[in-house]
């Protein structure tokens, strides 16, 4: 049964955030709000947690998992960025974007795309998500909470607790969050490619 944490949207309670981070560090799987709907999250090195996300979302091995980072310095440890890409991403973060980039050696191979050796990264503009990442001290392995056969991602904490109670370890509810998935931009080629049009404005990348 998933533990339910009702977190203040502007001043997240440190005690609640600490409890959720303890669950993540103990190989738990959580649902948490971001600026672009809810996400599933687990610790970076948690292989079982990654497989649980695959099962919940019915994903194949070509799915790009996302490393959700607290800030740009943290993001830079896990992906290779040239100067032009650096400027483009810096201008769009934090925000409703996921960027696909070549992974550094810091990224476990199982998290990379099997052929491209790339990984998704993002920095959310959401108070509760930022509090969680600051307390964890490292990126969280994440994926949008979009269930198989559904067109829209889940956006209500109580509904997630209701429907996924038996497959999650914790749900953080912080009131309103985004209702659209992130816009996904692939920077691994010569030109930026818009992979998914979502909450983030694509104009700056076209």
What labels describe this entry?
single chain; 206 residues; alpha/beta; 10-stranded mixed β-sheet; 6 helices; 10 strands; 26% helix; 23% strand; globular
Structure, described:
Pfam families: Sua5_yciO_yrdC (PF01300). InterPro entries: DHBP_synth_RibB-like_a/b_dom, Sua5-like_dom, SUA5_domain. Residues 14-200 form the YrdC-like domain. This is L-threonylcarbamoyladenylate synthase. It is built from six helices and ten strands; from the N terminus they run E-H-E-E-H-E-H-H-E-E-H-E-H-E-E-E. The chain starts with a strand and ends in a 10-residue tail after the last strand. It has a ten-stranded mixed β-sheet, with helices on both faces. With 206 residues, it is an alpha/beta fold. The model has no long low-confidence stretch (mean pLDDT 93). The chain has helices at 14-25, 47-57, 72-75, 83-91, 127-136, 157-164, and strands at residues 3-6, 30-34, 37-43, 66-68, 97-102, 118-122, 140-144, 170-173, 183-186, 193-196.
């Amino acid at each position: 049964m998933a533990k339910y944490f009702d977190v203040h949207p502007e001043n997240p309670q440190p005690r609640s955030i600490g409890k959720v981070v303890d669950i993540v560090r103990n190989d738990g799987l959580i649902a948490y709000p971001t600026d672009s709907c809810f996400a599933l999250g687990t610790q970076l090195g948690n292989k079982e947690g990654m497989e649980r996300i695959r099962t919940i979302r019915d994903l194949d091995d070509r799915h790009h998992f996302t490393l959700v980072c607290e800030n740009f310095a943290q993001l830079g440890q896990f992906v290779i960025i040239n100067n032009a890409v650096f400027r483009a991403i810096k201008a769009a973060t934090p925000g409703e974007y996921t960027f696909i980039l070549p992974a550094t050696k810091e990224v476990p191979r199982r998290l990379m795309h099997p052929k491209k050796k790339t990984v998704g990264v993002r920095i959310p503009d959401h108070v509760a998500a930022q509090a969680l990442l600051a307390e964890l001290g490292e990126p969280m392995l994440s994926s949008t909470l979009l269930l198989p056969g559904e067109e829209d991602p889940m956006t209500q904490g109580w509904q997630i607790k209701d429907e996924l109670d038996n497959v999650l370890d914790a749900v953080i509810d912080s009131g309103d969050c985004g209702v659209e998935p992130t816009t996904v931009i692939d920077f691994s080629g010569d030109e930026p490619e818009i992979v998914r049009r979502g909450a983030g404005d694509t104009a700056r990348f076209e």
